[in-house]
Amino acid sequence: MEQTVFFEGAFVPASQAKVSIMTHALHYGTACFEGIRGYWNAQEEQIYIFRMAEHYERLHRSANILMMKLPYTVDELCDLTVELVRRNANRQDVYIRPIVYKSSAIVGVRLHGIDDGFALYTTFMGKYIPAEGGARCGVSSWRRVNDNAIPARGKITGSYVNSALAKSEAVANGFDEAIVLTEEGHVSEGSGENVFLVSNGHLITPAPSENILVGITRDTIIRIARDELGIPTIERQVDRTELYTCDECFLCGTGAEITPVVEIDRRVVGDGKTGRVTHALEEQFYPIVRGENPKYRHWCTPALVQAKATAASQ
């Protein structure tokens, strides 16, 4: 069955959602997006969309950086997303991609005086980094974009050329993922993930000033570590060699979820296996995102409630 998407203000079949080859965003990377996961809870026959409002709040902030106006409030975007997931009726984990973009068919490098478009679709996503037993990472020769060049705190499509260069270099060199440094040589993030180290019983992660995308999964990890495991997180500059001497390392993000790192630049991290703290975080994280932990149920938006209620009444 063909999937439904939301495009130009209406729900339409995916095959009807088309943009012009002259679209400004296609030529200049003038768009921003979010990646949101919906998790299938088989016991409840429900899809729970994780921290959806926070994603749309960030999308509004990213759009503002690019002088774009989203035509919908955060609440309206949440309602549209729930309706789209419901219409596509997926009974599995779902990946949700909203995008706001400069939609005019016009040539010229600028942000002003150009129409804004919005689209939303869903697709399937399994493991973003399919690395059984943990990821092997390489420090990239490509440096992270600087906030004064392409603002790293926005999910701007054009900036992901930087990520693509780092990722493909890493894979070509035999690694699963890249870790990218700032121009000053400090750890920034992966090609599409935040980086955490475990050292001396603390979590350590690069501060927002290190040109990271301030991740929603990153915030989730910090809160879980503090509230459930009693482990504080230190946000600071991280030197490259700390990657080689830490007790544990993992990547996190909507796509990557929690991905243990077992090797960096062909140096074994810890004992070369998923570390104790990383494993404890995984045990907390996955029940939370699937709506199985009542304490964090407010982070999980049920998408199939009305569909189930209708079925029960028939």
Q: How does the overall form come out from the CA principal axes?
A: globular
* SSE string: EEHEEEHHEEEHEEEEHEHEEEHEH
Put simply, the count of helices is 8
Main beta-sheet strand count, sense and barrel state: 9 strands, mixed
Average pLDDT across residues? Answer: 95
Please give the number of β-strands.
17
What is the terminal separation in angstroms? 24 Å
Proportion of residues in β-strands: 25-35%
| Protein structure class | alpha+beta
The Cα radius of gyration reads: 20 Å
Given as residue ranges, the uncertain stretches (5+ residues, pLDDT < 50) are 306-314
Helix content: 25-40%
Sum up the structure in keywords.
314 residues; alpha+beta; nine-stranded mixed beta sheet; 8 helices; 17 strands; 29% strand
Q: Can you characterise this structure?
A:
The chain is an alpha+beta fold and 314 residues long. Helix content is 28%, strand content 29%. The chain contains eight helices and 17 strands. The strands form two sheets. Strands 8, 9, 10, 11, 12, 13, 14, 15 and 16 form a nine-stranded mixed beta sheet that branches. A hairpin with a 3-residue loop joins strand 14 and strand 15. Helix 2 crosses helix 3. It is globular. The chain starts with a strand and ends with a helix. The C terminus is likely disordered.
